[in-house]
């Protein structure tokens, strides 16, 4: 398993919607590879980041986590599902 921080952060930044800050957030939550991320629950990751930061984080972070987990867990992800906004909560009209 990879543990060199700079390499792990670089790997995370290959995921849609994940830049330097979110890559660092994933590291701070203890995630050390995309393979590990693929096995995680994005809802639980979101709760952990809220707890870690001591505040309710913008829900867009949850959508990015959903997308990142999907892409990490899927060998041939659908292009539409590689956009974080695809993962937004659906509004009932």
Overall description:
The chain is built from 5 helices and no strands. The chain has helices at 5-12, 20-28, 34-38, 42-53, 60-73. Helix 1 packs across helix 2 (20-28) and helix 4 (42-53) packs across helix 5 (60-73). The protein is globular. The model has no long low-confidence stretch (mean pLDDT 94).
Topology overview:
Layout: H1 5-12, H2 20-28, H3 34-38, H4 42-53, H5 60-73
Helix pairs in contact: 1-2, 4-5
Q: Which terms summarize this structure?
A:
mainly alpha, DNA polymerase, domain 1, globular
In terms of structural class, how would the helical and strand content be classed? mainly alpha
Portion of residues in beta strands equals: under 5%
Poorly predicted segments: none
Q: In percent, how helical is the residue content? A: 40-55%
Overall pLDDT confidence: 94
Q: What does the overall shape look like?
A: globular
State the name of the first-level CATH class: Mainly Alpha
User: Number of domains in the coordinates?
Assistant: 1
At the fold tier of CATH, the topology name is: DNA polymerase, domain 1
Radius of gyration: 13 Å
CATH architecture: Orthogonal Bundle
Counting DSSP E segments of at least 2 residues, the number of strands comes to: 0
Query: What kind of sheet is the major sheet?
Result: none
By DSSP (H or I, 4+ residues per run), the number of helices equals: 5
First-last Cα distance: 46 Å
In N-to-C order, the SSE pattern is HHHHH
InterPro entries: Cdd1
Protein name: Pathogenicity locus
Pfam families: Cdd1 (PF11731)
